Batch of 3 targets.
Target 1
Amino acid sequence: MKKNVFIGLLVFGLSTVAFAQSDLQVIAQVNYTKKEPITLGQLKKVVKGTEAKAGRKLTVDERTKLLHALIGQRLLIQASKKSGVKVLDSEVNNYFASMLSQYVGRPVNEAQFAKMIKQKYNQSLDEFFRANTGNSVSETKKMLKDEIMIQKFVMSKKQAEIARMATPSDGDIRKQYELNKQSFFRPDMMKLVIVGVIKQGKDAEEVKKIEKLREKVKKNKKNLAKIQAESANGGYVVQTRYALKNAAGAQSLQLPIESLMKIFEKPVQFVSEITDMPDNRQFFVITEKYDAKLLSLSDVIEPNQTITVYEAIKMSLTQKMQTYALQQANQALIQELRNDANTKVLLSDAKLKKVLAW
């Protein structure tokens, strides 16, 4: 009996070693400026992330395309470094912060986001990223750095072509408006000025400060302008938000739709009670209200702003066309740079298909 158990453990141990070795197997190599191996394990990580987003298992052909995309990415990174492209840590951190802000729906920095995650999920920022993306924060920042580097390099080589491909015509803009006219219907809307004191562990002091600010506004609504002007040095934050009278508006304010409807019943100059949020204590003031309207091309998207519907559509189309143009430029540059001397798939087609069919 003991002998059988020992043999079973030995077989299990050997299979584990074999699995580890297969992940370490070098299946491709890039040597534009240096020899850089690509292992099966590295490809598996990319495939795993792609399959999670797609919600299905990729075919062998799709996995093969991902391998060639990974080869192309490594080739562009080596070429970028050779050409002297530099990416500052501040650029990466700003990109990372904008990504976090997009996730939250409002401006936040890394420390504020980490605090929110700790309070909501009881996880560190690293644990949260590993659970949701499969990568640590440092790994994520490394990928962002590579992305910025490649974009800078491609722009330096293909700027004219990208600019030409990413410029929508007047006809493109007007067609986009006509096709999506209903999406430019703006429901009832109100302008809110939100005043908040960030939580820093000094509860009594922070509560006293937010209460004092609220009383100041309640006493005289004109004091709100002064509070806004002094926020940079006053130890509190002030944000102006526009809330729509719909589900999206409720979501943007992190409120149930019923609560939003009740706020819309309040008059202009209404001052709310203080709300205890995960990372701050805040109150808001309704400063303006706007009736529902179907926006025309010449209308501004939001009151007190200069961006019209026409300009917003142009910017949106430009961004989409620029993304496509960058992808095309990436592929064109990879084709120009890649040859049998600087990139190699180390397995035959038959062996590669077998290896990728895990």
Target 2
Amino acid sequence: MKAWRVHTFGEPRDVLVLEEVPEPDGAYLEGMTMGLGGWEPMSAGREPFTDWVVLAMSHAALALPDVTIARGTYPVPVGRPYIVGQEGVGTVVDAAPGRRDVLGKPVAAVCIQPWGSLAPVSVGVSTVFEVPDGMSDVDAAGFLIPGHTAYHAAIRRGGITAGETVVVLGAGGGVGSAMVQLAVAHGARVIAVVGGAEKVAFCQSLGAEVVDHQAVDVVEGVRALTDSQGVDVVLDPVQGEVASRIRAVLRPDGRHVLCGHAGGLQAHDPDFYLYNHTLVGATLGSYPRHEMRRLTEETHAALVGLVADGRYRSTVTRCVTFDQVPDALTDLAARRTMGRVVVDVRT
């Protein structure tokens, strides 16, 4: 099969190669286990990984980790070569014994390297759910990771409640736009931080007030919208230089939820304790498998319920062909995209 693979390190447009690779199958997966950076061969003292499905792919989503893994700046090292892509939609053609109930069904799934989602056949792991009723493959391909990450960061770890004022950094991206919707759905006042008129309009359509960082200083913009009263929560998938500055708008007892690193990782000023601020880490990668399964099921039920109520939607804004992947990832790296970009793997 033809798949988009990376062998070296660099910008996606420079290191992505469309090449023939063997299709993954159940017989091969039975001799594999799962490490922090993805699938690994079995070794002494380790157990095989048994929560997988083999997928005939329909659509796959693009995301910032596709850029940072290629560059070598992702916090978790990923071995080379690997197929690009973190999630997508496909029909289950094989499955581990505990997943055989979904054989033949269309599912949305998270895909882990080296078998990423940008291939005709991929492997879904753990976070595997049937496509919700009425949701297209395009929308479902970009539904899981943004929604599950956003719910974990905003609701479970961030503890957002009705009546609170929440700032969302990077609000025009996949996770950011999901957090905007979830905070609005839970009754919060939401201030989205984005750059450019198109992203301003996008976030306003999701129910947020907006600060355009291309037109005004972020801190001053938030202060103006809140009459200098500050905010209760900052949801931050960006970090970098703005992370320490944005805490100037947090009220005492405010929470700064760190749930990504689009702007890079920097040490945090320890003075946050002087203002009774709480730094909250939020990632879905650190739980034991049984707890991870419980959390994903809980989250998915909540998201599907919000979709059914019309209070949450997949924010796919663009669908590209398979041969357009390098250009689309270049646009994503340059912050020229909004929401989620999806690839039709069949084209």
Target 3
Amino acid sequence: MLASQDQHNQEPHNQEPPKRRFLGRGDIDVSFEFFPPKTDAMEDTLWRSIRRLEPLRPKYVSVTYGAGGSTRERTHATVGRMLRETTLKPAAHLTCVSATKEEIDEVIRDYWDLGVRQIVALRGDPPGGVGACYEPTSGGYANAADLTAGIKKIAPFEISVGCYPEKHPESKSVEADVDMLKAKIDAGATGAITQFFFDNEVYFRYLDRVRAAGIDIPIVPGLIPIHNFKQVSSFAERSGASVPDWIGHRFEGLDEDQETRHLVAAAVAAEQVLGLVDQGITEFHFYTLNRADLVYAICYLLGLRPAKAFTEAKVETAT
């Protein structure tokens, strides 16, 4: 339908165009988080997602890490395969949970010897799960700041840490969280990834707070596409992240309608990420849940395109 002259006259001519209009000029950086698979089927899903997202040339990809030897081994195996078989730069997660300093230091050295040069250093959830009381492991690192300092003593890794715009669930206040972030930076952290959020104002208020506190490292927004609203809402509740009512309303009645739910999820994610771009944000970290479809679509909206080498290889394979 053609717009009327009156409608055109309502638009201010001197309004600065949204920054999203200039996407595609190479000024956006992304990173992706994956978790190590527990079964053969999950491994297949993970590697299909990795192959789908690899051509977008992310800044790095992180692989999560949990307490217990088997989880550590799966993380190590996934990171090793990434280094051998892909062009990706893996950043291995590392936590303080259920391990002594000596055990963690051995993992750190193994990662360096493997060729890993970036670590995401986290305290980790209590062994009893989110909500349980956290007690440092006897003889272990006390918290993420202590772990960061320990990593730096072993090798010159680039270290990213977590930060919490709505405060960590166990923290007394946002101010206490900011103090902990300062401690991580003093220990050697060079970047921070936020807990996921859905209201961009939450991120910008937090950014104002940390900048006012003299913190100038990159604070990269962590974003999670809503593949399953109930699942993500549960993650949010355990993590202390709020879910605005309007998001719940958008997914209302779609539990059995996967196709429409997927379209709504894409629209919600696009609205959030483009809103951040319009405010000058140019780096994003995606919690993929080992699924590539929505993340790939969002990156496409951000102006990212598959690297030419990958598209040419795909054409050669098809001919």
